[in-house]
Amino acid sequence: MKKLKRYQYERYAILCQLSYPDTPSIYQDVISPFKQIQLTDKYNRMSVRLLWQDDKKEVIVVFRGSLGLRDWLGNCCIFPTKLNVLNDSYYVHWGFKRLLDYPLYPDSTTGGLQSLRQLLYSVLTPLLRQGKRFSFIGHSSGGAVALLMADYYERMHPKKVKRVVTFGQPAAGSLSFRRKYLLHNKTYRVCCDLDMITYLPPIPYYFWHVGKMLWLHDDQIYENTPTLKRLWMSLRSWLLRPITYHYMRKYIRNKTLFDDH
């Protein structure tokens, strides 16, 4: 498995942030070099954004996470359902399969109303013909949909998925999904401290994560930390936080705050 480089991580994280309407304007310059297509829902909210440059091989496909009560209610529908992928199938979270089937509106260049999976596939096809490869990224439920869509696309077009990067993502599928998922060596699941969404759905040993976990905790990156150990380390850090704020490294970390003083 290749490493996820710092500049890639930072760019993907900002692009995920930009999928939400309340993003600070200071991040907008990140998008300026790219051509883009947006897929929107019936409320005219962007659900998926495609970004690419003519002289680069990578197309970045960004999936937005949950917005509003309706989305969160869908996330709560945690019972498993079968997802058919070509001649195979596996069981996934019902709420995330629902998002794959959710009707989206394209921009004026891509045709009529279709499900997310159908529409995105048709939009990616011209870029595929140009020799592009695709990185699927997303935050929260958008990360779960990125996994499902990436696996589907890899089955349709082997070796055309460059990588999958998710942030704060809940588990997307059952053990059957974990066993059949094709992109373990290209998938990075980024978790931050005690992000409780990354422990969901709350059904132990039924829903499973895939790929490589990168856990950001106490100014360090841990790889593939077991769930119970991660939970204990987070709680211990939280309980000791009043003491750790006294450490000199905390003062060094904040040295840049004095640049304007």
From TrEMBL:
Residues 60-203 form the Fungal lipase-type domain. GO terms for biological process: lipid metabolic process. Pfam families: Lipase_3 (PF01764). InterPro entries: AB_hydrolase_fold, Fungal_lipase-type, Sec_MonoDiacylglyc_Lipase. This is Lipase. It comes from Agaribacter marinus.
